[in-house]
Amino acid sequence: MKVLIVFTHPSKNSFNHALLENIISGLKQAGHEIRIKDLYKENFNPILTGDDLTMLHTNNIPEKIDKEQQQLLWADSLIFIYPLWWFDRPAMLKGWFDVVLTNGLAFEYSSEGVKGLLKHKKALVIITAGGSKQYFIDNDALQLIHRPVTDGTLSFCGIKDVSHQIYYDISNLSDTERQDILNETKTAGLEF
Ligand code: FAD
Q1: What is the CA(24)–ligand 1 centre distance, in A?
Q2: What residue numbers bound the domain in which 55 lies?
Q3: CA–CA separation, 10 and 24 (whole Å)
Q4: pLDDT score of 191
Q5: How many angstroms is it from 151 CA to the middle of ligand 1?
Q6: Sign for the pseudo-dihedral over CA of 95, 82, 131, 124
Q7: pLDDT of res. 2
Q8: pLDDT digits (tens, 9 = 90+) for 116-140
Q9: Which pLDDT belongs to residue 134?
Q10: Is the CB of 18 under 6 A from ligand 1?
Q11: How far apart are the CA of 158 and the centre of ligand 1, in A?
Q12: Per-residue pLDDT tens for 4-32?
């Protein structure tokens, strides 16, 4: 399996980074081919500019977009790892989607409506949240956590096989509970 991991967290000492390391280690042990996009580390520019749009409208793909799209097309499977920020993905990751998932590559409009073009890929979305699960239940917000990415983005582009794993209340867990999560993620990438 060719796996592209898109990692979005600014800190190397974060829990998210520990999740990343465990996922990589599990996938490597299983012999998968992996590429890692660490958006902050590579100082990814998440802004889709007016010039980019003008070029895209005339079917010219700007070089920076083409580079990202080649990596996306290379992968059979995508893994996204990020903290929940304002009930959604961090803006950096949102920008990556803005830049990469362009009309004509990821989806197209036809007389039958929108058609997703990335049908043969699958995805795993791993999210950490500061809030407790009970908080999200009480505020009728459980689906808000993953739907913008699973439905509003990936499924729209034809990726219907999307699993998601959400780890709540991350700062209030015990060290043992956090270690259990890290152990679990070592195999998460192999099972989806
Ligand atoms: P960290 O802060 O790095 O770590 C969390 C805990 O794990 C700490 O106790 C740390 O000591 C420990 N830890 C770190 N590394 C390890 C390791 N290797 N092994 C074991 N333990 C470790 N939350 C919501 O629920 N909803 C929101 O809408 C929301 N919006 C936010 C918006 C912003 C801008 C920000 C900054 C935060 C927001 N949060 C929100 C909280 C955010 O989701 C959590 O802070 C984040 O998920 C925690 O992940 P982290 O990797 O940053 O954890």
Answers
A1: 20
A2: 2-191
A3: 18
A4: 72
A5: 24
A6: positive
A7: 96
A8: 999 999 999 999 999 999 999 999 9
A9: 97
A10: yes
A11: 30
A12: 999 999 999 999 999 999 999 999 999 99
Candidate of 7, 12, 14, 38 to mutate for ligand 1, largest count of ligand atoms within 8 Å of Cβ: 14
The angle subtended at Cα 70 by Cα 52 and Cα 188, nearest 5°, is 115
Q: How many domains does the chain divide into?
A: 1
> From ligand 1's centre to the CA of 132, what distance in Å?
12
Q: Taking the alpha carbons of 109, 74, 16, 14 in that order, is the dihedral positive or negative? A: negative
Where do we find the tokens 């362009």? Answer: 102
- CA 113 to each of CA 18, 19, 57, 88, 116: distance values in angstroms, whole numbers, following the listed order: 41, 38, 19, 26, 10
**Residue 90 CB–ligand 1 contact under 6 Å:** no
Cα(167) to centroid(ligand 1), Å = 10
Whole-structure pTM value: 0.97
- Supply the CATH number for residue 49's domain: 3.40.50.360
- Tokens 């590429």 sit at which residue? 35
